[in-house]
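Take a specimen:
=====
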Amino acid sequence: MSYRVLVDPVDGSSARSNEPGRADEREEDESMNGVLILNGGGGMGDYYELIKRYAGGPDAPVVTIPTGVSNASSDAFAPGMQELKEHGFSNVSVLHTRERETADDDWFIGVLTESKAVLFHGGLTSPILDAYQGTKVQNEIVNLLERGGVVAGFSAGAAVAGSVVIDRPLYDVLGYRTGLGLIRNAIIDVHVIARNQHYDLTEARRAHPETVGIGIDVKTNVVIQDGYLTVCGSSYVVMSDTDPAGESTERLYFLQDQDLYDLEERRPLRRHWTTRPFVRARERSMSNAQWDSITT
């Protein structure tokens, strides 16, 4: 089994595993070799430094996608361009459209073929999904991961990387949406503790029990590579998962800076003092009497 950075082909020809929360069985060369760097919004932390580290330095060719922002443009004044310049990036291109037909044109995706990193700006998830989900842009981003590149996103730009998206503020109208699927069988949410949204993550997982929930709080990043998620930042990442032995019991883990989550074995690890899994949060299947008995 592999739970690396994986994606379903746009044509949907590869079905998901029926095993809850597990990725498909695939040949080794079908796994992605790249890195996902995702930020929970509300402050960047080491976001840009992580991108430079994994993409190969400030001169690496980078493509920024500002489509999630209402005033997005494709010129030198596009949202996010100033921040990239301030952090020393010297080879930046902008990719932006609101038209799916454009996102399927070969001339439009050409800038992605030579890039080492793609960055999704924040804003709203729906404009990003409306423009790119199921198009050649999505396919080319998958190709970038296959050749060992970096895909990064902050806030809404991070949420779209999952296979299922809680599409705020349109959830009440559109419900859950299909994401870009850059990590398979996963729901990614942001601002989770600052906005008390980790309960939404749990509800989303109940509706999609095959998934693992990754809730990234503000000023916090995660790096996903080789089947491990690593936390980098000043707040927490909330993991919502089921028992790795196959039980339906829900588990919540609150991970802090330098903690890891083994996405294949479905367990948290604390790097800085032990490689043993740490004690899990309360299981929802416990009765109040059972919980009281072990805490009093």
Confidence is low (pLDDT under 50) at residues 1-31, 279-288, 290-296. Residues 28-295 form a domain with the Rossmann fold fold (CATH 3.40.50.880). The first strand starts at residue 35 and ends at 39.
